[in-house]
Known about the structure:
The protein is an alpha+beta fold and 214 residues long. The chain has seven helices and ten strands. It has a three-stranded antiparallel sheet, with helices on one face. β8 and β9 form a beta hairpin. α5 (113-120) runs antiparallel to α6 (124-145).
Amino acid sequence: MPEDRLEFLHETLSADERARIERLATPRLQARAIAARGGMRQALGRHLGAAPASLRFVTTSFGKPLLAGGGIQFNLSHSGGLALLGISEHGRIGVDVEQAAQVPLELLAMLAPAEAAAIALLDGLDQAAAFFDCWTRKEAFAKATGLGMSLPFDSFDVVSRSGHVTLLGPVAAAVAAAPRVWRTASLGRIARCYGAVSVETTLDCVPFALEPLH
C-alpha cells in the first residue's frame, strides 16, 4: 500500500489503536495493521454515513469488538497480506482468513469427530484445502458468537453442505438461542489464504457484505 495512503489511514485511528500497532514487532506488521484497522474504519464509516475517525469501539468480555452505542455488526480478520471485513445489519457475523500451510495435526484433533474423519480420508493438497475450509468456518462461527476460542471446537460441526451449523452437546445459551439460524460459507482460496464467513439470521436469506481491505 502506498505510504501516503498508510499515513492517511493512520490518522483515522484512535490513540489506543496507534499504541497497540506501535508495539508490533516489525514495520511490515505495523503497516498491515494500519491498513486493516484503517480500512475497517473507512468501510464502517461508509455504511454508517459517519467520519471514520469518529467511530468508537468497545469490546465484550471475550474480546470481540463492537461499535459503541450499537448499530451494525462487523468482524475483521487478517492474515499475511490479506484483510477481510464482514458487515451485517441483521445479526452477528464472524469472518476468518488463514494463510495456506501444511495441515497442523495438533489442530486436526480439536475438530468435531465427523469433520476430522472426513479430512483424514484425504491427503496432500486436498487434505490441506479441506482442513482450512473447515477451520476458517469454525473460526468464523466462534468469532460470530462472540465466544472465540473459549468455545470448544469439537462442540459444533460445520461440514454440512447447506452451511448450517450443527451444535453438538451442551453449548453456551448465546449460541443456541432460538429462533436464530447460524450459517457458514467458505470463501475458498483467496491469493495465498483461505477464508470463511458465519452469520446469525432469522431470515431465509443471509444478508451481509464482505470487503477485502488489502
